[in-house]
Amino acid sequence: MTEIRRNRIRHGAGHSAGWWVVAGLCVVAGLCVIVTPAVAQEPPTEDVVDPFSETLEALAIEAMPEGFGRDPSVAAAWQALDAEQYIRAREIAEHILAEDPESIPGHAILGYVQHRAEGNLPIALYHLKRSRDLYEQRYGLDSDEDTPWRWHNIAVSELAFVSGEMGRHEDKIRYLEERDSLYSPPWPADRGWPLMRLRRYEEARLVVEQAFELGHPGQISAARTALCAIEAEQQLREAGYEACMAAAAYDRENNIGGPTPYTNAAEASLGMLRMDQAEKLILEASEKFVPGTVSNPWLDLMHLYLAEGRTSEALDALRRMLKWRKRQPAYMDEQNRAETELASAVFLVVAGYPEEAARITARALDRPDRTGFTSSDAEQMEAAAALVDRLAQRTRAELLMEKASWSSFFDGLAARLEAQQARLRAWSSGRRAASLLADERILLATLRPYLAGSVEIPEWIEPELIAVLGPGVVAASLIKAEARETLDEAVGYFRAYESEIAYLQGRELDALRLADEALETLPPHEALLRDRVATLAAQAAADAGLNTRSIELFDAALQRDPGIIRRFGLSLPATFPAATGELAEIARKLLRRSPRFRRANGGYQVVVDGDDSSGSACLLGPQRTRLSCAEVKIRPGEDVEALARRLAAEFHAAAFAPRLDLTQADIRSLDGSPTAGGGRASDRLRNVLSEVAASGG
Predict the structure, then answer these.
(1) How is domain 358-567 classified at the CATH fold level?
(2) Which residues partner with 599 through β-bridges?
(3) How far apart are CA 443 and CA 455, in angstroms?
């Protein structure tokens, strides 16, 4: 399946074009036909049965359709594959190959298992090619019904799927053409995706028309989705919207199933700035789980909720995103692992956990996703990871400087040194992103809101490009992007960019004026982007001496996204009323050293109170409304100074991060700790140990 995103199209299902999947080994109808998927289930539990028993082999032979041969071991392996009992199938295939290293079905089965169960694409490719070559050497291409032709069918079909997943789209087209020339009926829509991926749009349109003429529901569905992708990749907003909505409507009317047409339509809706419609479509998609799809509606919903400032709902969507991904087969890991992890990192940065986010972004940079299921180039995906890593590292550096302000001398020195390292890492990631964005086509697409071909990052992060590339470079590209834009409502996004450019160029009054225009025209759903605009405008107003206006803008952003002050490394104007008691006075002095505040008349107040056993610190707004508070109680063996330091730490956590029910288990699951892998990680570990034991290692 193909899924349209604002910056890319995704291949939703791993083993077919359209909304249909190849069922098992394509044996039900006697040919490799596309069938509707069954309701998603967990893989069947494998009974403890000797796979080489004579009884099982006899039963398997009786159930074997023609074209598979009559070898008993092969029959048992086929039956295991048909039941998705991949461990048993692998054991049988290895036994077959041990007896006959040139076994056509042995290589086909092992390649199939390596692909579907292990996700080891290079090894799968080797065995599938070996099976195909052995068959053609032995039987040629004009073989009759007495030959084991189905294994050749399977090998060629799987070679197409594996090649596509590895981003080898020319190879995929070649294998699909070979399959369609030898086996009936042909499925032209399958070629729509790789042709589109290669930007051979006219050829892709041709196979779409051929698929429509077949009248087969699966092919029509695939063709409609391919057309959605073609229009989107050519950055035709209105045409893409119509095509994607038509694909979703067809899927809905025919009850084909799968989330992809709905998430595609949701992305097209975002491209028209119809956020409410997008949310409804994503929720519809969330009810249509199928295995083997890269589409994860909860990931899309998390980004949407987070951008809208609905942080608690975003957290719930994030939890569901992780559960959805764990239900997918192992071979999907190489296709969307980094994207899923980056979504977690983005959320953790907003939630006030930049250190955990930075661990994730480092992994995503080291192990990027394959691009077989997306229309993105590898450079786009790597640039996205680099930009998110830069944001995480910069935010982490600010958090460490806060820690230094309340720590002892040596602890504070260590925190400052670590902050410098984080800044260096942020700089390095920024340079990496800049080198990857040398293609102006990608930059222009990114500057236009929710457009295919852009970098895969949320709209509220995209202005980070200004500091990375330089305000002059982005300003020149912005003129071209706005000239190409067809959506009138996009003007607010352009003004947001222009405001930040003006701020970085030291034109405070221009930045403030452009920010006001952006805030008037940006969609109200763009909460985090609006907060970004308001925060930088607040700093611009402060630099221009417009203190009242500055405080108004700071207050607007803080109400919804208190962490934005930390992410930008800014300081709030504040006063620190005198405190009574040793604990309160120590804590007050520590808080005055915080980089999040600058002493100024008016503005905010930091009020500290307490005695020798407990204390509190509160941040009061310009109207003396309570924005956040932290309270601590002394622990056994803790002195007053240690309690004051802990109060300062708790205050910063409360004042500059959203209030969320984020448990330690959540954080472990998001940052990829060893306890987060679940059953799949355990299964993989067992598989590795089995291989080591078998090899005598």
Answers:
(1) 1.25.40
(2) 574
(3) 8
pLDDT tens, position by position, 458-479:
999 999 999 999 999 999 999 9
- Residue 349: its pLDDT value, please? 96
CA atoms of 409 and 590, how far apart (whole Å): 12
Count of alpha carbons within 13 Å of 462, Cβ hemisphere only? Answer: 31
CB count, 10 Å around CB of 503? 23
Q: Is the peptide bond before 636 cis (omega within 30 degrees of 0)?
A: no
Report domain 1-13+188-289's class.
mainly alpha
Distance CA 604, CA 587 (A): 17
C-alpha distance from residue 452 to each of 191, 237, 618 (Å): 20, 9, 45
Token duo for residue 555:
């207050």
Choose the CATH number for 18-39+48-186 among 1.25.40.10, 3.40.50.300, 3.30.930.10, 3.30.428.10. 1.25.40.10
* Cα–Cα dist 16/21, whole Å: 5
Specify the 3-state DSSP secondary structure of 609. Answer: strand
Query: Cα 233 to chain center, whole Å?
Result: 19
- Model confidence pLDDT, tens digit, residues 346-397: 999 999 999 999 999 998 888 776 555 555 566 778 889 999 999 999 999 9
Return the structure tokens found at 546: 């417009």
Identify the burial level of 469 via C-beta atoms within 10 angstroms of its C-beta, where 0-12 means exposed, 13-18 middle and 19 or more buried: middle
Is it true that 18-39+48-186 and 358-567 share their CATH fold? yes
Low-confidence residues of the chain: pLDDT under 50: 1-12, 14-56, 59, 673-697
Amino acid, single-letter form, for residue 625: T
For 619, the 3-state DSSP assignment is strand
The residue to which tokens 């905010």 are assigned: 604
Q: Which residues contact 479 (CB under 8 A, 6 or more apart)?
A: none
Q: Residue 232 corresponds to which tokens in the numbers above?
A: 């989107």
H helices within 352-408, ranges in order? 354-366, 378-406
> Interior CA angle at 196 toward 190 and 198, to 5°?
115
Cβ(402)–Cβ(594) under 8 Å? yes
Instruction: Locate the domains of the chain by residue range.
Output: 1-13+188-289, 18-39+48-186, 358-567, 572-655, 664-694
DSSP 133-147: HHHHHHH-SS--TTS
Note the pTM of the prediction, 2 decimals. 0.84
Q: Please state, as a whole number, how many other Cβ atoms lie within 10 Å of the Cβ of residue 622.
A: 16
CB 670 within 8 A of CB 360: yes
Instruction: Of 532, 628, 632, 549, give the one whose Cα is nearest residue 587.
Output: 632
Give whole-number Cα distances, 144 to 65, 104, 411, 439, 651, in Å. 15, 16, 78, 52, 78
Q: How far apart are CA 186 and CA 535, in angstroms?
A: 57
Length of the chain: 697
Which residue from 297, 386, 304 is spatially nearest to 345, judged by alpha carbons? Answer: 386
Measured CA to CA, the distance from residue 591 to residue 645 in angstroms comes to 9
